[in-house]
Amino acid sequence: MRITMLAGGVGGAKFAKGVRALLRSPQFQRDHPDSALTIVTNVGDDMWLSGLKVCPDLDSIMYALADVNDTTRGWGRQDESERVSAEMGAYGVGWPWFTLGDLDLGTHIARTGLLRDGLTLSAVTAQLCSRWELGARLLPSSDDDVETWVELEPGYDEPEAVHFEEWWVRLRARVPARRFIQRGVDSAQPGAGVVEAIADADVVILAPSNPVVSVGTILGYPGAGGRAGVPGIPGVAEAVRETPAPVVGVSPIIESNPLRGMARQCLEALGQECSAEAVGLAYGSRRSGGLLDGWLVDDADAAALPSLRQTGLSARSAPLWMTDAETSRQLAADTLDFAAHC
Ligand code: FO1
Fold first, then answer.
1. Do residues 29 and 35 touch, judged by C-beta distance below 8 A?
2. What CA–CA distance (Å, rounded) separates 340 from 342?
3. pLDDT at 9
4. Which residues of 27-54 are buried (b: 16+ CB within 10 A; e: fewer)?
5. Helix or strand or coil: residue 332?
6. Mean pLDDT, contiguous 10-residue spans, the chain (342 residues)
7. What is its EC number (predicted)?
C-alpha cells in the first residue's frame, strides 16, 4: 500500500510515527506487503539564517522518525548543546530568540553546503535522511524558496511584516496577523516527486497539522469575511483533487482547541472559525471541487458529523489524541480503515 501524507512539523511527525508503526506491524506487512510511506512536507517555515538554510518542518519529521528529536521541546535534537549559537550571539548574528543547537546546526551546515553544490532541496533532503532508516520518504512540498511571512496588525510597535518563525517564536502570535504571505509562491513548482506521490498513491492523508501554515501552505486554505487566504504551492492541490486514491484528512482541532501550536490565531487571521467542522468544510468535499473524500474528527466533535456529511464528505469520529506510540498507531489504523470505506 502506497501511503502519501501531507504534513507540517510537530503534529505531522507524531502522526507519521503512528503510520510507520502500523506499516511495520506483522499483521499489516502480511496484509499489505511492500507498503511505503511518503511525506510531503511544508517548506513555508524555512528560512535563510546567518547564511544557513533552516527547514523546521522537514527537520522535525526527520528527527522524529530517526528518534533523535527532543520530545520535550517538540523540535530540535535530543542531547543538544548550544556552544556555537552562543558564539554567534556574541558576534550579534542570527536570531537570539531562535535557538540553533550544535547538532541542529550540523544539519543546516550540511544542507546549505549541498544546496551550494547545486543539489535541489529534495535531493538534499534525501541525502540527509539516508543517514537513518526512517521508514518513510520525505519530499519538500517545493524545491523553491517559498517562505511564509506574516503581515502584522499595525499599532504594536512591530515591523509591518515578519517571517513566520519570528511571529511564532519571538512574538508567540501575540501580535495579531493581518494576513499570511507566501513569498515566492507564484513562481514555485511542486517539489520533485510530489505530484507523482499523490497521483500514484493508494491513500492520501492530510495529517493533523496546522490547516493554515502547514497544510494550507501546501494545498491552500480559503479566507472568509473578506480576509485573504493562503494559495498553497501551485499544482499540488490539483494533484490531490485528481488522484484516484481516497483522500482523507485528520482534524488538527478537537472541541475548537488546536492539538498543538497556534492554529486558532492562524485561522482568525483568515477570518475562519477554529473547529473541526469548519476546517473540514473549508478543505471541502472532492465531490464539490474540494480536497477531501473523508474527514476524521475526534469523538468529542461527533455532533458535527451530519453537517459534514451534508456537503458530500464522508465523516467519522475516532479518538484523535496521540498521547503515546500506541494511540498514534491506532489513529493511523483508524485513518486507513476510514479511507478504505470512504
Ligand atoms: N521553536 C521555539 O519555540 N523556539 C525556538 O527557539 C525554536 C528554534 C528552532 C530551531 C530550528 C528548528 O527547526 C525549529 C525551531 N523551533 C523553535 C520550532 C519551530 O518554530 C517549529 O518547529 C515550527 O516552525 C512550527 O511548526
1. yes
2. 6
3. 82
4. ebeeebeebbbbbbbbbbbbbebeebbb
5. helix
6. 94 94 97 97 97 97 97 93 96 95 98 98 98 97 98 97 97 95 98 98 97 98 97 98 98 87 92 97 97 98 98 97 95 98 93
7. 2.7.8.28
Q: Residues 6 or more apart from 314 whose CB is under 8 A from it? A: 248, 293, 294, 295, 338, 341, 342
**Ligand 1 centroid, distance to 13 Cα (angstroms):** 14
Amino acid, res. 262: M
Does any ligand 1 atom lie closer than 6 A to the CB of residue 103?
no
Grid cell locating 108: 543546516
If one residue of 98, 111, 260, 265 were mutated to test the ligand 1 pocket, choosing by the most ligand atoms within 8 A of its CB, it would be 98
Q: Check pocket membership of 59 for ligand 1, CB cut-off 6 A.
A: yes
Question: Ligand 1 atom 5: the closest Cα is on which residue?
Answer: 98
What is the per-residue pLDDT for 56? 97
